[in-house]
Each structure stands twice: as C-alpha cells, then as structure tokens.
Amino acid sequence: MRTVRDTDAPAPEGPFPPTEAMLAEPVPPEVAEAQADRLRRVWATPKGWRYWSAVNNTEVGVWYALTALAFMLCAGVLALLMRVQLAVPDNDFLSADRFNQFFTMHGSAMMFLFAVPMFEAISIILLPSLLGARDLPFPRLSAYGYWCFLIGGVFVLGSILFDAAPRSGWFMYPPLATQDEGLGSDIWLLGLSFIEVASIAAAVELIVGVLKCRPPGMRVNLMPLYAWYVLVVGGMILFAFPPLIAGDLLFEMERGFDWPFFDPERGGDPLLWQHLFWIFGHPEVYIIFLPSIALAAMIVPTAARTPIVGYSWIVLSAVGTGFISFGLWVHHMFTTGLPALSLGFFSAASEAVVIPTGIQLFAFVATLMVGRVKMILPMLWIAGGLAVFTAGGLTGVMVAIAPFDWQVHDTYFIVAHLHYTLFGGMVFPVIAGVYYFYPVIAKKTLSERLGRWSFWLLFTGFNVTFLPMHLTGLKGMPRRVFTYPGHVGWDWLNLVSTVGAFVMAAGFAVFVWDLLRPKREKLTERNPWGAGTLEWTHDLEDESWGVRSIPYIDTRYPVWQQQQLVDRMDAGRFYLPDAEAGRRETLVTSVIDGRPLQLLRIGGPTWKTIWAAIFTGGAFIFPTFAWYGPAIVSAVLAVAMVVWWLWTGSAEIPENEMADVGLGLRLPIYVSGSGAVGWWAVWITMLGDSTAFASLVFGVFFYWTAGTDYPPAGAAHADGPLALVTMLGDSTAFASLVFGVFFYWTAGTDYPPAGAAHADGPLALAALALGAASWALTLAAREANRRHRTGLARLCLSAAPLLTLATGAALIASPHVAGLEPTEHVYPASMWVLVVWTVAHLIAGLIFQLYGLAGLIFGRITPRYDAPLWNSALFWHFLGLTVLVTVAMIAGAPRVLG
Amino acid sequence: MRDRYRAGLGLLILTASAGCAGPQSVFSAGGADALQINRLFTVMLVGAVLLWLSLNGLFLYVTRRRPGRMSRKLAEGVIIGGGIVLPLVVLTALLSWGLSIMPEQRAPGDGLRVRITGEEFWWRVDYYPPGSEEPVVSANELRLPAGPRTEIELLAGRVIHSFWVPGLGGKTDMIPGRTTRMSLEPVTPGIYRGQCAEFCGASHALMAMNAVVLEEAAFARWLEAEAAPARAAEGEGQAIFFREGCGACHAIRGTPAAGVVGPDLTHLGSRTTLAAGILPMERAAMVSWIANAEAIKPGVRMPAYGHLSKAELEALAAWLEALE
C-alpha cells in the first residue's frame, strides 16, 4: 500500500482487503470474552455526577437532541402565546413590546437553537453507527460544542424572562436593531455568535468524521446517503455561518463602539447587513432541509425493502442544492429596490433549485415503485411531510417570481409558505427519524398507537393553522404585527389559525410524552424495520463501544448484501476487536477509497471541555453588559483551557509505532500532516474562517461601490454585478477578492471620501514583511525539526512569536499614526475592522507558535512526532494570506483605486 | 337541475369572493399592477394545485395501492422525467411570463411624482405635479388619479419601512440613506388600505394609510385645494394649539405652525383616517389620541396631553377637524 503523503509515519503493514478465508476463521470464545471486557472497560460511561464529564457520542448526542427539543418547545410556547394575542382583533393579551420580543425569539430559537443543533445532535448520535465507527474523531470537541450550545441557548432564551429579549426580528435589520435601546440586540448578537461558533465546531467534526472515519473498504460511493448529506450540510454550515459572524462583528462594533457600518449619515449602509444576513440565511434554509431529506433517504429504502434508486442522482442533487443555495439570497430582498436584472437573475436561480429538489423527491417515489412497500409508522410521517413540503415548495415557486413576491413579501402568505417548507422539510421528517431510529438509541420502540395519534393531530392542526394563512396574507395582513383592526376581514381567519395551533400543540404533547414516558416494554428486536444499513448492527444490550468489531464494507446495504456480516461483527471477526492498550481507539481510513491508514486514539471523559465552554461563554456573554475586563479574562482562560485540553489529550507520543488492528493488519498510531484528522480539522476550520474574512472584504467593496450619495440609478449599476461577485466570493474567498478589485477598478464613487486619510503605507508594508518572516520561520521550524535539527527549530519558534507581535503592532500603527478615526466615517471603520480581524488571528497564530515551542522544549514534539507543527504551519498559510490581503486593502487599494 | 347547479356555483363564487375581499386585500384590486399580478397568481395557483394533486396522488398510489415491482431502469426514467424534464418545462414557461411583466410593473410615471417617506409610525406624502419643484406637502393619506401612472419615490426616516397598498400593486422598501422607487397605475376610483410591510419597531402593526383613487378631474381639484393654505378659524381651539406648542412639531400652512417633526396638519380634516390609518376621523378619536397617543400607538413620539381638560381637548379636536 502507498505511504501517507508528506509525513514520516510508517506505512500500514499486512493484507487488505481481508479474504473470505480470513473472515471465516473463528475466534476462541475465551479470547472474545476477554476482548469484549477490555473494550467495555475502556468505553465505559462514567457513573454518578461524573456522568456529565462523558464525551462519548451516544451521551453527548442525546443531551444535544433533548436540549434542542426543550428549546423548540419553549419557542413553540411563544408561538402559542402569539396565536392567543392574534385570535381576535385589537386584543391586548400581549403588549406590542412583548409580542415583538416573542416573535423575535420564536424565529431565532427555532433557527439557531433547534433546527441546526437538532441536525448536529442527530448526526452526532447516528454518524458513528452509520459508519461502524466507535466514535467521532474529536469526541471532546462535540462535548465542548454541546456545553457552549447549552450555555448560549439558556442565556439567549432566558432573556425573555427578564423582559430583555431581542425585539427587532430574527433578521435584526439595522438601523432598527443597531439603534434599539436595551440589551436585546447585544444578547442576540453575542449569544448567537457563541452558538454559531459551537455549530461550526460540530460541522468540522462531522465533516472529518465522514471523510476519515469510515469503515475499511467503504468507498465514497458506498457511503450511506445520510453521510453524504452530513458532508454537504457540514460544508454549507462552514461557508454560510461565517458571513453572519462577520456581520455580527460589524454590528457589535457599531453598537459597542459607534463604528458606523450601518449608519447612512456617516457613509454606512443598512443594506450591507441584509446581504450578509441572507448570504447566511438562505443556505440556512437548506442546512435545515437537507438533513431531513437525508433521514427520508434512509427510511424510504427500508420501507420499500429495496436499495435506493438513483443513488448517484441523489448525491449530485444534494451537492447541487448546496451550491445553488448560496446563489439565492437576494430573493429575500426582492422589495429593496434592486435593479430588474438582479431580480431576474435571482428569480431564475431560485427556480433552479426546484430541479435538484425534484430529483430527490422523485428518487424516493421511484424507489417505492421498485420495491414492495411496507407502510411502517415512520413512513406515515414521511408521507405527511411530503404532502406538506410539496405545498410549501409550490408556493416557493410562486414567490420566487419577483413581481408576485412584491405583493406577498412580508405577509402571512410567506408565514404560511415558510412553515409549510419547514414542517414538511424538517419537523415531519425529523419525527419520522425519531420513530425510525429510536430502537438504535434506546433499544425499545415507540408506541405505534401514540405515534398515529400524534401524527394525525399534528397534521390536522398544522393545516388548520397554516393553510388559511395563505389567504390571510393575500387579504393584506403583514407579518410581525402584534394586532390588527376588526374591519379588514382577517378576524375569522386568525381565529381558525389559533384553534389549529392548539391542535398542533396537542400533537406535539402526545409525541413528547411518547418519547419521554417511562418504558416498561421489553427490548425490541435488533433490526425491527428490516433495514440494510450498518446502524442496525447495534448491540441490544447497551454497549458504549459503538460496534464490537469494525467491519470490512464493500456494499451500500451491508446488512442485506454481505453474508454473515452481523454474526462476524458480533464475534469480533473484523477490525479492532480489542482494546489492548487500554485506550479509546477507532480507525482512520483514506478519504476516497476507505483504505485503513491509522489507529486513532481519541479522548475519554473530561471536565476540561466544560470549563472551556464556560469561559468561552464568559468571553461572549460579558460584552453584552459592556463588562470588557471580565470578558478578556474569560477569553484568556478559555484559550488556556483549550490549550490544556490539546496538550494533555491530543497528538500524544505513543509507546509503539504500530499497533495490530486485527485480520493481520498493522497500522501506525501517530500520523502528522495531511494524513492526520487534526490537520483536516484545521484546514476545514480555516476555510470557514476565510469565508468570514472574505465577507469583511466584501463589505469594504460594497461601500466602495455603493457610494455615499445613493442616486438610485448609480446604486442600480453597483448592486447587480456585486451580487454575482459575492456568489463567487462565498466559495472562493480570495478569487472573489482579486475579481472584485479588477471589477471595481473603474467604478467612480466617493468611497473613500475625498481627502480622507489613508493608512500609513510604510508601516503596513513593514507589517507585511514581519508577517511574512514569522510565517517563514514557522515553516522553517517544522522542516528543521523533521531533519532532527531541534535546536534550530527551537530558535525559529522563539523568534517567530516576537515577529508576530511586531506584525500586529505595525498593523495597528498603520491606520493609527495616519489618524484614521473609526467613529467618523465608514471608511476608516472598515479599514480598522480588517486590522482588528487580522490582529485577532495573529494572536491565535502566536498561540500556535508558542504551543509548538513548548512542545519542542518539553519533548511533546519530536522529529518523528510533529503533528502540532504541521497544523500550525497550515494555520499560518491562511494567516499569511490574511495579512497580505489586509495590507493590500488598507494601504494599497485606497491609493490605487482612489 | 342544471339551474340549481348554476345557482349553487354562483353562491359558491359569491361566498368565496366575499371571503377574499377586504379593504386591504389583493383581490379587491383597483390598479393595473395588482390586476396583472392577480392574473399571474391565478394561473400559478391552478398549476400548483394540479401539480400537488398529481404528485401526492402518485405517492399515495405507490405506497397504498402497492403496484407491482417496476424495473430499476424505468424507475430512473421517473427520476429524470419528474425531477428534470417536468420542472424545466414548467419553470421556463413560468419565468418567461412572470419576469416579462417586471418592466411594466416598474415603468416610469407619466408626470405626477409622489415622494413618500416612512416615519415612526406614519407617512410623509409630498406631491410633485409635472414641472413643479415645490411639493404639495401632506401626510398619512395618499391620493392618486385613476388612469395615468404615478411615479412613487420612497425614503425613510430613522429605520426601514415598506410601502404597500395591496389593491394597487406590490410593495417596495423604504431604506434610510437611499431613495427607492416604484410606480402605480390605479384604474378604479375607490379607497384602498395600505400598511407598512417591513417590521419597523414597537408599533409596526399600527402604521397604515388609505390610498384614495379619484377620477382625474376630481384629483386635480383636490390637489389644488390641498396646495392652498389652511382656512384656520380663530378661537379657543387655535389658542390651545399654539399655547401647547403643537406647532413646534406640526405644520399648518397659513399659520405660524411650521414644525416638521410630525405630520403636516394643513388639511387634516379632509383625510379619511387619523393617526396613520388606525383611527376614524372623528371627534372622539381625536380627543383620545391627543390625550394619550402612547396608549393607542406604543412608541409614538407625540407626547400625551392628558393635562388638558375634557372641554379643552374637545375644542382643540373641533378646531383641527375643521382644517379641511
């Protein structure tokens, strides 16, 4: 077998793939028993109060899911209270202010605290079992993500109890939201940014899990469809959330420090937020929808008792939907007065998404036509979901036509449309998934009778609530109104909707009761639905080890298509049947063809992740109250906790080079560079991070081209191509930048304002030179260390941090000595924000360098075991580019472009 | 039998149209733009219902009737036919038609220009007759001539609003720092209710206005009257108005009141509603509005004048109501 690129790790040894004869060889029962005991001990979940230090996916995933469910129920209660207020005209059940807080929190919580986390929760629970892995590659990262989610969610949602909740809508449009008095907007911005960071962490983990932790032999084209969707959705989270985080940064700088990004009086523009918000917001819709399609893609073949028809079509469509979803955001802005050309383009793009969606739905229909359908209960929920979703999809086709949207935009027609897509495309399929996968998680089945009751109550209630809303909207009722007059004819429609909402609530109550009620039934069968995928090889006597042995997979539906698979897995005939070293271990395989590459040791239970989450929470939550001192202390402690956790729990030097993983195969334990999961995680994270930076750069060009005097005709010229540029920019951060620079070379506007001071050129160039030197030293340290010149490596990494500090100082000095005052105008503010961003990343780069230096000094890094240096170099590649772009933007572009 | 069927159908349509009508309904259309969008909607609705029924009918059939096994090859054909060919044909047709009406919907106006500015939570309405640079300033009611197309310029005060009169046509946002535009071509005289469609704060729900469409000649007469100064009567009401400093915020042309913070009141009494479309133009409503505007419209800038006696409030209201 080929050795791993770029690294000094030894190549795997031994036969692969295993032969039938090797698999048929029996394991002596006493050996098997001893192996099982060791595995059980290693993977045991801590007991008592220590239970909460668990990091295993089966524990963390369930906490995650139940927390998201609890937040969803709270947001649902807010909806019910709003329905009571709207039941009759001129009602005073809720005050205007409270109603506005409620609808803001309803939307925000459903999106940020339920829909996305629920996908991540379900994926954390299911992904390892779908892939026959023991756990995800970074279990402690999942735990950290969960605790961040819990703290952030309670903080944001809890604000409603103190009458301090955000009240400017889940979309937080400035200037209303930036100028809002009170803490609401800050709670939204900082609390949800905190949760977004956790969401991105989970996305990184899930992507690496799909790419690197598949069972041996499972090539990408054999992956269960759910894994494909996880990959697509993870990638979307990675590119969609950063523009919002960049927007949040601008927003909070305006609120906290009066940098006028959205204030038209000082050159800012409220529309920039709308662009950044919807570049996030529209992919978000598909981030919510695709995982549910993925659940359907698992349930439908089981119900049809045949492999899915059109596997490749579905995969292509999922990827296609992911890409197209980034090109649709302007359809949320059809009424903002953008030019007809832009509207036409985005109308067509919005309709185009029907095609991949249609392919996926027809693939399910085709599968059902090929198979012999057994109408299992989860399938009823899928059918209901389909009926609801297609209605929402068809109204979606209508509102994508810009002129029709001009009538119904921001009315109850849209409220109906979006709830049809979200219930049909998320709630129903997720409940289907819960009924379907419950036996894997809890080893029991949910009640068939309660399930049907719940379905019919929910289905009826839903349609009674939302179907009339189409008409309510066409009769002119705008969204987000706390009351309405009696004479306009909306009263009876609203009353019907309110009654329906309570029927729906009853449906949810039945479902939640079924889910949480104490279950005295005996254990279910192992594979009650007769499914064909790996998760159904789970152990009925609950074991935390994931699988007894990791199988060799060469089919899409191994339980159906591979002889004796389950028996051999149970007997420990496959890979990794033992835990000889007494450590939690799983297999790492190659990205495309699933060749075994490494035996990965992963972290066990720990409190460090909780502390890290608590301090990260402090760093985000204290600034809400403008307590910047404690915030900085918290941030420092959070970084310290993360460093401690990495230092003690990752890239540990193993006692042996190689380990026996069964079936005669020996794998390296320590891999660095591009073969290592950690390197992949850094790479993927930096892609997301660059997207946020690209969004800030986009902001600068936005001001540049939108000008300051806003003649409508001029604005029209600017916005159309701008939209196209961003689409490119979102996926290819730096290409967009270069493209954008050339595109706007000729655009004559008055950003920057005539006579404005520019950042100091020589200082900026000095920053660039210092940054380049620091980058070079970081690389040199890695290479010197590989060549056993440890002294030189230490020297490089001692000098590099000093250069990094000097880079930061020069970068700050460049606009500072030139007298750029960020509160005066959006031009200095946008130059400063690039500097702030880059300096924050320089601090991270500094920590990487110091971590590497410490590793070299304390013997945690050796010429052979050098993963941290590879990861650090990778981070610095991105950082070097960031410094380059920032210097070009602050010192070069204003002089060149004027 | 046939007659009874017809009568039944007629009754059904009548009920349905009664159920759909309303002062703010897109179905009570009186403008060329709204009518055109309604035609688009009708066609899309029929298409959507047919597609929904066939798709879900198909799903029901394959899951409940359990037809025999179809070959995988044929099934892939279902994916291509249903997932690619069908949407391509339907959407190409829809886009070509739907987008082709856009230029008409936003065509430039024929002469009259109206500049509307969204405030918290009311509307400035300035009329610029053809050739005129000096506006006729009004507020909280839009009057338009039936026939010609009127150019609408949209501005905003502190926050974003959206201008929308469903019976006349689609909406366009009003954004601080920008000027957006649209146009409307009313065809049937009448009163059409409009409302702010972009969330703008505490009383977003209470920011409405009537659009009154007049025959062209009637509109010209009205505009002339609107341009004239107020015929303010002397008396107690006027005295209270100036004593309480109302003129610092409100303008009444022809009097010393020249404030620009609040709506112009020059011809207040001739408007169909009070407080931006939420109260009837009646004495009692005026009294309670002046006494405590905040209680009626949370977040409003107008202070409460609860310290005035009932008689003073009545006198003030009567005087304002007489500004026709």
TrEMBL record, chain B:
Compartments where found: Membrane
Keywords: Copper, Electron transport, Heme, Iron, Membrane, Metal-binding, Transmembrane, Transmembrane helix, Transport
Catalyzed reaction equations: 4 Fe(II)-[cytochrome c] + O2 + 8 H(+)(in) = 4 Fe(III)-[cytochrome c] + 2 H2O + 4 H(+)(out)
Main location: membrane
Domain Cytochrome oxidase subunit II copper A binding: 109-225
Pfam families per UniProt: COX2, Cytochrom_C
Transmembrane intervals: 38-62, 74-99
Keyword Transport: yes
Domain Cytochrome c residues, every copy: 232-324
SUPFAM superfamilies: Cupredoxins (SSF49503), Cytochrome c (SSF46626)
Top-rank lineage group of the source organism: Bacteria
Family, per entry: Belongs to the cytochrome c oxidase subunit 2 family.
Protein name per the record: Cytochrome c oxidase subunit 2
Lineage, opening ranks: Bacteria, Pseudomonadati, Pseudomonadota, Alphaproteobacteria, Rhodobacterales
